[in-house]
Task: inverse folding
């Protein structure tokens, strides 16, 4: 049996960042991951980092490539009723910004940092189980390369995403679930086309929402609101471009630039939170504990914020025997989680077409967009949430 201080399930942004922050505090950890390294280093997901996330990465020594290759954006556009209006983060938040840097690049940087400093990530682990976490001696069990393995530890970081095993291992009755599903999904594409706007464009349209984003100076990322049961076979490239151009039409002549589509996918939309985010010595972080619809670009950022709180609490435990921060882990995280849930829900409700909406609702949405882009108070509300609330 192997021993470590903190055993972490999942090598996504939450698990890897936790392991990295613990290492900086002199705390040992081992990450156990179901997938292979190549798979997780190329999994296309989020792309927008809050200022808060960028600051944390830079302060913890992960800034080198991010600061060189990340695209810093000082605002976003809201496009509705034939007008494109800009929310100026710089002016509204005292110089805070967002950085476009793909999640899998963050993951690559984190894996490299862990492996370079002798960290252990056990990829391709099968049938992981978490045990005895309500005692002082939790254990992780799994199979790797056909052999049974066991890790004994002081704490478990449950960082295995929404479909992981940590949350379902918590005994029935402990967790309360709060959730909402939305009656639509996003069809997302990556296109080999130089972005035609320097900043993101969120478009509200009669035919549904569309988003213009990017990954690099040569790659555009675009999304379209669609049916959750949508069949991608019914979306040949020409149909996708026609729909994107219609929904992104503006009065000022701007349009996304077209190019070969190199990836297509469907993303469901859901808001989900469990309370509490801990049970004994098992601590849930990131998507394992909560998910948000992608409209606010928050999932990855929330995962990083959780593990910053957890790393600080574990450091206080190991350095001075303090248990109070660990005890309050869930409470501390949930204050931020619920604010981010509210923001993600609000952006989603403001920008999407709901089938149950009538002409009244449509006018209400347009009025809200007009207000949000013309009142300085409302613009500040959007901007300060988008660039990221400060860590507690
Ligand atoms: P992850 O990234 O899902 O990582 C969990 C890891 O655990 C592994 N795992 C297991 N390992 C061992 N045993 C098991 N039984 C396991 N089960 C699972 C998995 O293989 C995986 O490696 O969760 P984490 O670390 O909490 O990170 C969360 C983020 O990935 C997620 O919130 C974001 O991607 C959400 N998201 C966005 N977030 C943002 O902050 N900004 C964005 O712009 C943004 N855009 C998006 C998004 C998510 C999207 N999709 C595909 C859902 C855009 C999209 C399209
Ligand atoms: C992305 O670039 O993938 C992206 C950007 C903004 C969002 C969601 C996703 O709100």
Result:
């Amino acid at each position: 049996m192997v021993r470590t201080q903190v055993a972490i399930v999942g090598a996504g942004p939450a698990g890897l960042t936790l392991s990295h922050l613990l290492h900086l505090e002199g705390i040992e950890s081992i990450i156990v991951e179901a997938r292979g390294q190549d798979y997780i280093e190329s999994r296309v997901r989020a792309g927008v980092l809050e200022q808060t996330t960028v600051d944390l990465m830079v302060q913890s020594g992960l800034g080198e490539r991010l600061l060189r290759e990340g695209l810093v954006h000082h605002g976003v556009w809201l496009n509705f009723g034939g007008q494109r209006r800009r929310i100026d983060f710089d002016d509204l938040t005292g110089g805070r910004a967002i950085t476009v840097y793909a999640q899998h690049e963050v993951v690559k940087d984190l894996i490299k940092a862990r492996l370079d400093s002798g960290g252990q990530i056990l990829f391709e682990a099968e049938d992981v189980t978490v045990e005895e976490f309500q005692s002082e001696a939790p254990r992780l069990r799994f199979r790797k390369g056909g052999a049974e393995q066991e890790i004994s530890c002081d704490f478990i970081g449950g960082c295995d995403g929404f479909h992981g095993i940590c949350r379902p291992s918590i005994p029935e009755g402990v967790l309360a679930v709060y959730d909402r599903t939305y009656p639509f999904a996003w069809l997302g594409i990556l296109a080999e086309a130089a972005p035609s706007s320097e900043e993101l464009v969120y478009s509200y349209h009669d035919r549904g929402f569309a988003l213009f984003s990017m990954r690099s100076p040569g790659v555009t990322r675009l999304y379209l609101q669609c049916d959750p049961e949508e069949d991608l076979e019914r979306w040949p490239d020409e149909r996708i471009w026609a729909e994107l151009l219609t929904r992104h039409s503006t009065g000022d002549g701007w349009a996304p630039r077209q190019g070969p589509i190199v990836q297509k996918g469907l993303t469901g939309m859901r808001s989900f939170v469990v309370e509490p985010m801990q049970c004994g010595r098992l601590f849930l972080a990131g998507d394992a504990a909560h998910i948000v619809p992608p409209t606010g670009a928050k999932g990855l950022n929330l995962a990083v914020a959780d593990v910053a709180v957890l790393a600080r609490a574990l450091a206080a435990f190991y350095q001075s025997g303090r248990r109070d921060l660990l005890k309050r882990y869930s409470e501390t995280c949930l204050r931020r989680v619920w604010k981010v849930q509210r923001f993600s829900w609000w952006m989603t409700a403001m920008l999407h077409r709901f089938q149950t909406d009538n002409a009244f609702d449509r006018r209400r949405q347009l009025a809200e967009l007009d207000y949000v882009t013309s009142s300085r108070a409302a613009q500040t509300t959007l901007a300060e949430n988008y660039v990221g609330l400060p860590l507690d």
Q: What stands out?
A: The chain has two domains: 2-73+98-178+270-347, 181-269+353-387. The chain has a mean pLDDT of 97. Residues 350 and 365 are 6 Å apart (CA to CA).
